[in-house]
Structure formats: structure tokens, C-alpha cells
Design goal:
Low-confidence stretches: none
Mean pLDDT: 76
Largest sheet: none
Number of strands: 0
Radius of gyration: 44 Å
Shape: rod-shaped
Number of helices: 2
């Protein structure tokens, strides 16, 4: 019988495979932990399931949405203000029938003496 030690001394070195790469190790670790139960997280926190980067992205999106709502409301305010101004201008230039031009008070106050009168 022949033993595995017979023959060339370096023959056994060719039977080994190379070491796994980082990607292969990461995939094996992910596959091994895929069926583990979910970690218990605090309930009641809004972003408890998100990582720090995901939280920053969510806050950025929420900030941009708020900024968009502010710009839209400012635009609606300006449009409404222009519509009210247009109505007021139409009333102002409608004609003298809407505007009372008769003086209701005298120009000279009643309790004072005229400036040109001798004393």
C-alpha cells in the first residue's frame, strides 16, 4: 500500500484551495445570520429602525419638503394679495359714483381764529 507521504513532498500543497476573500467571508456571515431573530429595538422612537446615515437622509428630505411647503404658501400668499389689490384698484377707478367727494368738514377748525384777522 502506498501512503500519502509517498511521492513528491510538495504534492500535498497543490491540494489546498486559496483563502476566501473578504467578500466571500461577508457573504458567508450574512447567510449565517440571515435567519437570526430581529434585535429588540426601542418602541416609540420614530427613527429607531434607521441607521445614523439613514436618519440624516430622512431629516434632509423632511427639511426640503418643509422648505417646499413654505415656498408654495408664500406663492399662494402673493397671488392672493395681488388678487385683492386688483379688486381694490378696480373699485378705486370705477368712477365717481362709488367715491363720495363732498367735503364733510370745513377746512378751518371751528375753535381757532383765522390767521389773517386783526386782533
Amino acid at each position: 500500500m502506498s501512503s500519502p507521504r509517498d511521492g513528491n513532498r510538495h504534492q500535498d500543497a497543490y491540494g489546498f484551495e486559496p483563502l476566501p476573500s473578504y467578500l466571500e467571508l461577508a457573504m458567508a456571515t450574512a447567510a449565517a445570520t440571515a435567519h437570526d431573530g430581529p434585535k429588540q429595538r426601542e418602541k416609540g422612537l420614530l427613527f429607531s429602525r434607521l441607521s445614523a446615515v439613514e436618519r440624516m437622509i430622512a431629516l434632509g428630505i423632511a427639511g426640503l419638503a418643509l422648505y417646499g411647503v413654505a415656498l408654495m404658501s408664500d406663492g399662494f400668499y402673493i397671488k392672493g394679495k395681488a388678487a385683492v389689490a386688483q379688486i381694490l384698484l378696480q373699485r378705486a377707478f370705477a368712477g365717481p359714483e362709488l367715491v363720495d367727494t363732498t367735503p364733510t368738514a370745513s377746512i378751518q377748525p371751528q375753535n381757532t381764529k383765522p390767521l389773517s384777522a386783526p386782533q
